Amino acid sequence: MAFPAPRRSSGPRVVVVGAGVIGLCCALEIARGGGAVTVIDADAAPASLRIAPRAAAFAAAGMLGAFSEALHEGPGHHRRLSDLCWEGLKSWRTLVASDPELSGFVRFNGALLLAHDEADAARVSRAADRAKRHGAPYEKFEGLPPGLDGRLYGAKVKLSVRLPGEGAASVEPTLARLAEMALSFGASIVREREVVEVAASNDRVSGVHLDDGGALPADIVVLATGALAPASLVAGCVALQRLTPAKGMLGGAPAPQAFDLAETVRTPRIYFGREGEQIFFGATSEPGRADLDADPEAIAALHLEVRRTLPGARFDLATTVLSVGLRPLSPDGAPLVGRTGPDGLIVAVGHGRNGWLLAPVTGVAVAALASGVDPAPVWRDFTPDRFA
Ligand SMILES: Cc1cc2nc3c(=O)[nH]c(=O)nc-3n(C[C@H](O)[C@H](O)[C@H](O)COP(=O)(O)OP(=O)(O)OC[C@H]3O[C@@H](n4cnc5c(N)ncnc54)[C@H](O)[C@@H]3O)c2cc1C
Prior knowledge:
Layout lengths: L12 E5 L3 H12 L3 E6 L14 H4 L3 E2 L16 H18 L7 E2 L3 E5 L2 H16 L5 E4 L7 H4 L5 E5 L3 E3 L1 H14 L3 E4 L3 E7 L2 E7 L4 E3 L2 E4 L7 H5 L2 H4 L2 E11 L9 E3 L4 E5 L2 E5 L3 E2 L8 H5 L2 H7 L10 E10 L6 E4 L5 E5 L5 H16 L18
Parallel strand pairs: 1-2, 1-13, 2-9, 5-15, 13-21
Antiparallel strand pairs: 3-8, 4-8, 5-7, 6-7, 10-11, 11-12, 14-17, 14-18, 14-19, 15-16, 16-17, 20-21
The site of flavin-adenine dinucleotide has 46 residues, from α1, β2, α2, β14 and β19.
């Protein structure tokens, strides 16, 4: 097969494997820096699909929840993930400021965290503490913030925290725009080709082998394969062997009339967002499940939380599964980003529940690595060899 050559050819030849949100942000930043980038993805382009592509990026809610992540911290959690998440949010602001079109799809409309009992209050307070430590805006209230309709949220809210700086992206148009931006900097994107192996000689990357028997030469290969790398690729890369797929689903319901969800609403067990006339909520999490079957029963299990969190909303909760995806989960829930294996091989995987939030900051780090520079110091704790 003849590949569309990247229009930029002065910098190193870079192949990015995977056009999920991580691969696209890596391609964008490497191309912006002058690299000759080709992105390869096994799936067809979304616009030509009747079914959703497999990438977790398409299944996601697109929340940019830098401090909300604290709701989920527990034993084994990476101790510096909250620092990275904060960098992730800042990086989205920089990216959106650089591209007016993106600002139509990515909004910073804030999040409202609700606690209904003592255990949740501890988690919600932890999110506020994180925001305070980073100098980010937050407000903490006994009960609901003033002005909110108590009939909608119910009387049982013990504590709430408002995080006005958090955001959310509309996933499909944002992914499309990220791809356009990468193309505008000279990258090319090849679809429906799977990379089955990274080629190397004298301990240096020389290119990739494809499922159709073809090959593409490269000086640098970036693996941004999420939880979807084929076994042949996993066998040759220790970092990919650290990952477990964690199946996740979003449920949806038509927005009840006169129901205004101006910000993301979260508890430690559920979140709600609005996309047009639809309310979506999620997400389920089943570590170890690697199938993409829609499972209405798992969504129905969230309905109790829907009613508990927004008791006045009167949702029509026919069990709609909006999306299914596989989160690439590392042993400590944090990404693996850095050099590994032969010279020229870089991995950017394992973003778990935070792949959207961390995509632009990962792209900037990988672009630095691709040009031979160390990424920002915050990345020192997220190298792929930390589990060795
Ligand atoms: C239900 C759900 C809700 C979520 N909500 C959020 C959220 O609100 N906020 C947030 O920050 N994160 C969220 N996430 C997590 C986020 O979606 C993931 O962390 C993120 O999508 C990972 O991006 P990725 O690019 O690494 O992988 P993916 O998006 O899975 O993309 C990987 C791509 O690589 C391609 N690929 C793999 N191997 C090869 C190969 N060998 N050759 C060619 N192509 C290959 C695949 O076809 C795929 O397109 C959610 C996830 C799920 C499932």
